[in-house]
Amino acid sequence: MAPLQHAHVGEKITLSFILRQQFQKSRIDVNGIADYAVASILDERIEVGPDTNSAFLFTHRLAGVTSGQVVAVEVAAHQTRGSKDYMKIRGTWRRSISAAEEPDELVARDSIKLHIYQSRIDYRFANPQVDLDWSTARLVITRSDEKVSSVFMDRPARPGFTMNGPDQNGYYSIQYFPLADQINKIGTTRAALKVLDVNGLEQSHEFEFDTP
Q1: If DSSP states are collapsed to H, E and C, what string results for 160-198?
Q2: Of 11, 32, 112, 156, which is most buried with the most CB atoms under 10 A?
Q3: Among 97, 117, 137, where does a domain finish?
Q4: How does DSSP classify residue 6?
Q5: pLDDT at position 166, please?
Q6: What is the rounded CA–CA span in Å between residue 178 and residue 68?
Q7: Which pLDDT score is estimated for 90?
Q8: Same domain? 128 vs 113
Q9: Which residue blocks in 44-88 are alpha helix, DSSP H?
Q10: What's the pLDDT score for residue 132?
Q11: Do both 83 and 128 map to the same domain?
Q12: Mean pLDDT in each 10-residue stretch from start to end of the chain (212 residues)?
């Protein structure tokens, strides 16, 4: 409901658009009032019909956006008059213009803005007493629903986490920019850096990082 909301880079968002009378909380039965709704997100046009609860539900993957960007989302509901104004032909929306028909009626519209953010892992830990075999290192990210993602060190053609160190104080640091599907939507997300030492024993550093 908020006019400004937050979304992660690459997140698959779901939008719900409902119609209601002014100053009334209950939604309107759109049967005979609105046949479809259109969402405009960046350069995308997404058109859906109502579900059984008279809601128009949209999903969209926020690809190609950057942290700090503000994305406008506009949604409009229409009632068809004659043929629909737009038809999707071979993946491209094309407008149908006919002098014999009126354009589809605009019934209602609304808009919100999405503030795009990017979570970040920046973990620092002391140089262990035993040398580590960094070729075995992996970053394990665990969501609250127990979905686990394993990320390895950054390599050509295989993006991953980066490692620096030890610094003059004997500390290592790792950095990683998680994907939207790897983190919890709110609060914190659990992570662990797991790496074998030269004796073949696994060293594990567990921590949590913020989800803005």
Answers
A1: CEEEECCCCCCEEEEEECCCHHHCCCCCEEEEEEEEEEC
A2: 11
A3: 117
A4: E
A5: 86
A6: 16
A7: 78
A8: no
A9: none
A10: 87
A11: no
A12: 91 94 84 94 93 95 95 96 82 76 91 96 88 92 96 92 89 94 94 93 92 76
Look at the block and give the residue holding tokens 């979570």.
119
- pLDDT given for residue 196 in this prediction: 93
**What is the C-alpha to C-alpha distance for residues 90 and 174, in angstroms, rounded to an integer?**
45
Tokens of 191: 């992570």
Outline where 150-191 has alpha helix (H).
none
Task: State the pTM of this model.
Answer: 0.84
pLDDT at 86: 80
Where does a domain end: 74, 92, 117?
117
Q: Cβ distance 41 to 73 under 8 Å?
A: yes
**Separation CA 92–CA 107 (nearest Å):** 24
Query: What is the length of the chain?
Result: 212
Count of H helices and E strands in the chain? 0, 16
Could you count the other beta carbons within 10 Å of the beta carbon of residue 187?
10
